[in-house]
Specification:
Layout (H helix, E strand, L loop, with lengths): L3 H15 L12 E3 L16 E3 L2 E3 L3 E3 L7 H17 L3 E2 L4 H5 L4 H9 L6 E6 L4 H11 L3 E5 L2 H6 L10 H10 L4 E4 L7 H9 L4 E3 L8 H8 L15 H8 L7 E5 L5 H9 L4 E4 L1 H10 L1 H22 L12 E3 L1 H9 L4
Helix pairs in contact: 1-9, 2-4, 2-13, 11-13, 12-13
The site of ligand FNR has 27 residues, from α1, β7 and α12.
């Protein structure tokens, strides 16, 4: 019988599917590339290998943090890790807080390593956990990196959520004590420059800006409330594109990861043009797995990989890192954001 915490994990899965909207937007349509008619390149010469700081990725996008902690979540993690292995994708775990409270649930997370023994796996935990728990989360998965999620909006809307958000000192402790890369990660509300600056000042080198426009935890947690009164927060935060613009002045010093509302290969390529070093995809992969199954999800991911190569060919870019030199056009709305926020 699943515990109350496990029940919440199952609700996150079913509600993210209920609210999945393939037309939601993270503002990618507000930017476009300038087309050049002489690419002078052949598709075979293009490589998708890339480096996220010290982590070598065979594919520039990966399966972002979702689940673990219940029977259903364990089964999904088994399937997700097999998909990751088949497609050469890194994969991030859902929050392992539940496994630290109740070690019986650890296997549902460990599936990510069990069925994907040689892949890149990221552990995941909340920002209020002591160093000891961060180390446990890494050990459960023999993880290559640790994601620490910062999710104030989700907690506020979550009926049983935390109301204390003193995280900076604790994050600094974990960064100093742990010997795998630490990725500080939002959960779909985006980041601003000052957040990134503060994180940089305490030694953080990897940041996932996880922006608005895809999975929306206001919708998910508000649905779980008895009185559904916090729905007015469902447009809160910066979109993924706005967050990447906020992060732009840091992209040479900090490994910026994009996630939130990625819907196709062109969105992924645009993230690299905006300075990202890797791209995380959560909702669309879960949606495809639940709706269409493992085989079709593998096909979808392979199409995205092929799509990235096709776009890089048109752009004349041999390597992922070449994409950041591409010129972009912003629409008036986004240009207005850039002006008001003093983004250079
Ligand atoms: C999430 N996400 C998430 N993030 C995190 O750091 N820890 C977690 O436990 C979870 N749990 C979770 C469950 C489910 C069902 C979903 C769909 C998502 C957030 C996720 O990693 C990502 O930041 C956002 O979902 C935005 O990306 P997408 O879904 O728009 O691609």
């Amino acid at each position: 019988m699943d515990s109350q915490h496990s029940q919440r994990k199952n609700e996150h899965i079913s509600l993210s599917e209920k609210f999945y909207n393939e037309y939601s937007t993270a503002d990618f349509e507000k930017i476009r590339f300038i087309h050049h008619s002489l690419p002078e390149i052949s598709a075979q010469s293009i490589s998708m290998d890339t480096k996220l700081g010290n982590i070598e990725l065979k594919c520039p996008f990966y399966i972002e943090a979702m689940t673990g902690g219940s029977k259903l979540a364990g089964e999904l993690n088994e399937k997700l890790s097999k998909i990751a292995q088949e497609c050469n994708l890194a994969i991030a775990s859902g929050s392992e807080s539940i496994a630290i409270k109740d070690y019986k649930t650890a296997n549902s997370f460990a599936n990510l390593r069990k069925y994907n023994p040689n892949g890149i796996v990221f552990a995941n935990i909340g920002a209020n956990h002591p160093v000891e728990n961060a180390k446990k989360a890494i050990d459960i998965l023999n993880a290559d990196a640790l994601e620490i999620h910062i999710n104030a909006v989700q907690e506020i809307v979550m009926p049983e959520g935390s109301r204390n958000f003193h995280w900076i000192e604790n994050i600094a402790k974990i960064v100093n004590a742990v010997n795998v890369p630490i990725i500080i990660k939002e959960v779909g509300f985006g980041m601003d420059k000052s957040t990134i600056k503060t994180l940089q000042e305490i030694g953080v080198k990897y940041i996932n800006i996880s922006g608005r426009g895809g999975t929306n935890f206001v919708n998910i947690e508000n649905f779980r409330r008895k009185n559904k009164e916090l729905n007015y927060l469902n447009g809160w935060g910066q979109s993924t594109v706005e967050s990447l613009l906020e992060a732009y002045e840091y992209h040479n010093e900090i490994n910026i990861i994009a996630s939130g509302g990625i819907r196709n290969a062109l969105d992924i390529v645009k993230c690299f043009a905006l300075g990202a070093k890797a791209v995380g995809v959560a909702g669309p992969i879960l949606h495809s797995l639940i709706k269409n199954g493992e085989t079709e999800t593998i096909e979808m991911i392979k199409e995205w990989q092929q799509g990235i190569i096709s776009i890089m060919t048109i752009l004349g870019c041999k390597k992922i890192e070449d994409l950041k030199n591409q010129k972009l056009l912003l629409d008036l709305n986004l240009q207005n954001y850039v002006n008001q926020r003093n983004i250079k």
